[in-house]
């Protein structure tokens, strides 16, 4: 396992290029890579070696952040296949998905006003986790079949769901 600039993130971590990643294995590989190139190990080295160590550490950190997150990993897989994601221009146009988003957002807004917001927040978080899992499964299938445009749509929808997941986490923190 060697850290080299120019490798894709999967290659950097010695992993197959795939949507499914074992989180424990990824973390172990991350720690092993960091142990080899961390700047502290190169404190007495030349300026060039210290600079390279810092660059590799930054690359490894970025790769780890992308590979551990299913949404970012999906985007990255598409980018590796030459499918660009345009955050400003890509919109979800599926009316059923948009209606689902509106319903989920409405449920989130109603949480504060109603009784037992924590229980209802837990229910919404569980529902959202199931939807994110299903959308990830959909992406996996589309990606493996080479259906890039549909896989791109699935990732875009995952991004919307993930944004709502983060909003739920923020509300959980407020209620604590």
Short description:
The protein is mainly α and 176 residues long.
Task: Walk me through the topology.
Blueprint: H1 9-12, H2 23-37, H3 47-68, H4 70-80, H5 95-111, H6 117-144, H7 148-175
Could you walk me through the main structural features you see in this protein, from its secondary elements to its overall organization?
It contains seven helices and no strands. It has helices at 9-12, 23-37, 47-68, 70-80, 95-111, 117-144, 148-175. The model has no long low-confidence stretch (mean pLDDT 90).
Terminal CA distance: 42 Å
Query: Uncertain segments of ≥5 residues (pLDDT<50)?
Result: none
CATH superfamily of the largest domain: HscB, C-terminal domain
The CATH topology of the largest domain is given as: Monooxygenase
- What is the CATH top level name of the largest domain? Mainly Alpha
Mean model confidence by pLDDT:
90
N-to-C order of helices and strands: HHHHHHH
Count of spatially separate domains? 2
């Amino acid at each position: 396992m060697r850290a080299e600039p120019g490798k894709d993130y999967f290659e950097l971590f010695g992993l197959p290029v795939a949507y499914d990643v074992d989180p424990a294995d990824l973390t172990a590989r991350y720690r092993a890579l960091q142990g080899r190139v961390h700047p502290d190990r190169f404190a007495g080295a030349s300026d060039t070696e210290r600079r390279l160590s810092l660059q590799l550490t930054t690359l490894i950190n970025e790769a780890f952040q992308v590979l551990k997150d299913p949404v970012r990993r999906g985007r990255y897989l598409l980018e590796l296949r030459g499918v660009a994601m345009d955050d400003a221009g890509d919109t979800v146009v599926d009316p059923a998905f948009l209606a689902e988003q509106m319903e989920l957002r409405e449920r989130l807004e109603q949480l504060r006003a109603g009784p037992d917001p924590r229980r209802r927040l837990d229910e919404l978080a569980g529902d959202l986790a199931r939807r994110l899992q299903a959308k990830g499964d959909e992406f996996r299938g589309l990606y493996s079949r080479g259906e890039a445009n549909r896989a791109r749509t699935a990732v875009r929808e995952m991004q919307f769901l993930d944004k709502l997941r983060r909003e739920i986490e923020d509300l959980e923190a407020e209620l604590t």
